[in-house]
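pasting for the record
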Amino acid sequence: MAESGAPQMSLLEKKIDDQIEYYFGDHNLPRDKFLKEQIQLDDGWVPLETMIKFNRLSCLTTDFKVILEALSKSKTGLLEISEDKTKIRRSPSKPLPEINDQYKDEIKNRSVYVKGFPTDITLDELKEWFNDKGNVENIQMRRTLQRQFKGSVFVVFDTDDSAKKFVEQKDVKYKDAEMIVLLKEDYFKKKNEDRKHHRAEVKAKAKHEKEEKQKQAEDEEMKSLDEQTGCLLKFSGELEDQTSREDLQELFSGHGMIKWIDFTRGAKEGTILFKSNAKEALDKAKAAHGDNLQIKKKDVTWELLEGDDEKETLKKIIEDQQQSLNRKRGRGGRKFGGRGGRRERGGRDQGKLQYQGKKTTFESEDECDPETASAEKKVKDEEAEAPLSQQPKTEPASPKKRALDDVKAEEVGEPASKQMKTENGSEKL
């Protein structure tokens, strides 16, 4: 608007010009839904009456004359003033860049992640701190879903070299706090690595806890078996080769809860371990099927084990169970199966005993960075962004290591599906 010989801006005029040019600039305008709608109404023109409803501008001034005076002194040529002095627009000679992959990569390569700021810092204080760090085009204050500042920012410099030069500085501090400074692309690579490592640790911990619970349950089961007496029933006879453990389950179904059957198909004898008294189960089965209790119409000799025979047989069953459990744990199969067959069953209508670990749900540990929210409200945040220049300089101080905080959403350069919105783009200056 103004020529090189135009009067210099006052500090207030500079702030007004920077703020309005930010609203219409490359970083804010593409994602400012409200402002984009306004420029569609009148060939790009936006009434000053609308502009003074933007919070940060209204905090500077609502006087049209002051606004027009500031814009008339601008040397960027970004904005135009209407003939009737009531409207402004972005100059048609300076169209917005095409938002394509090349542009996104360019912005990403000029973007830097900086962490270590106090959570109560203001945007003006950030602008002042970055004033001597290079030509900064945009500052995004990263916030939680509750709109709390996280202490970190994404900063877009004017060139790749400026961004790299800032990252290569040593002992970058804000007051007494050491800052974490990374190129944005390196930050996200590190976050992905940290995330994978964390998930692997959570998964390993969950697996270990599950195995410990299973082992504890198994140990208790073995101990309970060792303490039982009067629960073993031995059978023998000229059994058919096709006789199976299922036949025994069916025979005692409803008469006694079977915990283990030590028997293999084709054998002529075996042992049944009941959960309670074996004699009661045998008597009930005889009462139901006759005193001459048979297996598949074959005569069988039934013997209740006692004393040393009972102890030796129970010891063998416990050892067989443990071997079976170890084999099945190794190949991820069911526990308590093994050659002894199904456990905790009184028949086919009884339920299976299974030990299950607790299902672990992995949550994202990240907090999204809101970028743009309902712009129709048109209430601009206290924290806005704009070009930085002609501001007081501060000296950096000395560092303390900090852990990187989580992030999910990104501004330009990151997948759109992961973006979340603030009112009018990133932080408004």
